[in-house]
């Protein structure tokens, strides 16, 4: 009989303990912070738990690996509140100059390194789901798609994408009530297109540049849907 507990996940012969990772993330988020900072950090932690919950539901519904989805969701924002320079210097990591021009996406690229080097995650699919969760890319894996969408529609997020959230939520509840056993992948692609469209619009409204992978992802998923 297997000795592993339900909290432990065995992936490619590596065991991740979700509860340990969660405690470590919370400690890293809160340690050495002022009271005001802790309030912001706790808000981010609540968002993270919302992403875990949503990613788990999406993974069940679309047939992605549920445990990988939970771990990737838990660590997707692990680089938030890190002093990037300290981390980059500690491990001698070279961050692409171009990425540094986009402050809002740096945490996802550095997050993949942190997940690997500080949390011991070696699964490439999980690391890439963290890496691309802010920008997306063409032809994402199912896990990458699940994390990208879950980050945008989790219940604690603002309501800029409410329409998509409602479509996915109703599909989830039909699925959970066994009214539909299998959900077509098309609804996931539509959600991706709508989120990408909304994100690109928001970036342009702020007069900022859209990261090239996001533009490419949008074009790729539109073409796929035709
Ligand atoms: Fe997030």
Comma- or semicolon-separated keywords:
10 helices; two-stranded antiparallel sheet; 226 residues; binds fe (ii) ion; 63% helix; mainly alpha; disordered N terminus; Hypothetical protein af1432
Secondary structure elements and pairings:
Layout: E1 8-11, E2 14-17, H1 18-30, H2 35-62, H3 66-75, H4 84-91, H5 103-117, H6 124-131, H7 142-153, H8 162-176, H9 186-205, H10 212-225
Antiparallel strand pairs: 1-2
Bound molecules: fe (ii) ion (FE2).
Describe the structure.
The protein is mainly α and 226 residues long. The chain is built from ten helices and two strands, in the order ββαααααααααα. Strands 1-2 form a two-stranded antiparallel ribbon. Helix 2 (35-62) runs antiparallel to helix 3 (66-75) and helix 5 packs antiparallel against helix 6. The longest helix has 28 residues, at 35-62. It is globular, with a radius of gyration of 18 Å. The structure holds fe (ii) ion (FE2). Fe (ii) ion binds next to helix 2.
């Amino acid at each position: 009989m297997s000795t592993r507990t339900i909290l432990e996940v065995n992936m490619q012969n590596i065991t991740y303990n979700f509860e340990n990772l969660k405690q470590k993330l919370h400690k890293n988020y809160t340690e050495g912070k002022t009271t005001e900072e802790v309030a912001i950090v706790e808000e981010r932690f609540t968002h993270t738990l919302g992403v875990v919950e949503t990613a788990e539901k999406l993974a069940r519904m679309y047939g992605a690996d549920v445990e990988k989805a939970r771990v990737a969701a838990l660590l997707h924002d692990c680089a938030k509140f890190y002093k990037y320079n300290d981390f980059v210097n500690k491990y001698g990591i070279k961050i692409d100059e171009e990425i540094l021009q986009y402050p809002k996406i740096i945490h996802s690229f550095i997050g993949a390194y942190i997940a690997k080097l500080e949390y011991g995650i070696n699964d490439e699919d999980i690391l890439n789901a963290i890496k691309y969760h802010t920008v997306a890319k063409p032809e994402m894996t199912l896990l990458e798609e699940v994390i990208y969408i879950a980050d945008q529609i989790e219940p604690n997020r603002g309501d800029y994408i409410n329409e998509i959230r409602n479509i996915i939520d109703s599909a989830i509840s039909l699925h959970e009530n066994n009214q539909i056993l299998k959900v077509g992948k098309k609804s996931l692609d539509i959600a991706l297109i709508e989120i990408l469209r909304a994100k690109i619009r928001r970036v342009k409204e702020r007069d900022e540049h859209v990261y090239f992978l996001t533009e490419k992802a949008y074009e790729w998923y539109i073409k796929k849907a035709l």
